[in-house]
Write a structure and sequence with these properties.
Beta-clip-like, 2 domains, 4-stranded mixed β-sheet, 3-stranded antiparallel β-sheet, rod-shaped
Length: 221
């Protein structure tokens, strides 16, 4: 890791994505923070045009800065979709400076937007991990959880309502069945009473009278 003079308003430190560059002093908006530098690559030369790494910074269609060298401290600055700095490219001078676009407080990580091409090639496949994207993902997850909870609560209310209606219907059906059951039991009781009366009457009749008459007749004979 390169040694940074104490006079510089930044330091290399641990970040969410590995190493990053952090402010050690207040940095005002518009301040040139650091220069992004390295060997110049000429796209017209096949061997230089074939070089590929994550630290290539294009100046124009012909010239590119290879910022992969260890001395280039600016290479530790991470990407952000909502940055506090930006790249100030000067093609004629073949120089690039990282400039603050907001007031940066001590301890705050310095970051800038790497651009659409870099984002699509390196960040999109793995997912951007800058604070803005992390917050966006967290918000979407929270909204998804809230939506699932609402759907679940709605289903529970629907099930409770259905169960309540079913219980009320059962109570009403039972209430309707009670008068019928009472009427049927009354009819059954009356039917039993009618059946018993003839039997009692039959038992009350004198069946022995004809027998006695016959006996009297027999004696008379």
């Amino acid at each position: 890791m390169p040694v940074i003079p104490q006079s510089k308003p930044y330091r290399i430190g641990r970040s969410k994505t590995g190493l990053g560059l952090f402010a050690t002093q207040p940095i005002k908006k518009g301040t040139k923070i650091i220069r992004y530098f390295g060997p110049l690559l000429d796209s017209k030369k096949a061997d230089e045009d074939a070089i590929e790494n994550k630290y290539l910074f294009e100046l124009d269609k012909r010239w590119t800065i290879d910022g992969s060298i260890r001395e280039n401290v600016a290479r530790y600055i991470n990407h952000s979709c909502k940055p506090n700095a930006e790249s100030d490219v000067k093609p004629r001078k073949k120089k690039i400076f990282i400039r603050a676009i907001k007031n940066i407080e001590p301890g705050e990580e310095i970051n800038y937007d790497y651009g659409t091409d870099y984002f699509k090639a390196y960040l999109k496949p793995i997912g951007c991990k800058c604070d803005a994207c992390e917050k966006k993902r967290a918000k979407k997850k929270a909204e998804a959880r809230a939506e699932r909870a609402q759907v679940k609560a709605k289903d529970v209310r629907k099930a409770e309502k259905k169960a309540k209606k079913k219980a009320e219907k059962l109570v009403k059906d039972k209430a309707k069945q009670r008068p019928k059951a009472r009427a049927q039991s009354g009819e059954a009781a009356r039917g039993k009473a009618k059946t018993r009366r003839p039997a009692a009457g039959n038992r009350g009749r004198t069946k022995s009278t004809p027998a006695k008459t016959q006996t009297s007749r027999a004696k008379a004979a």
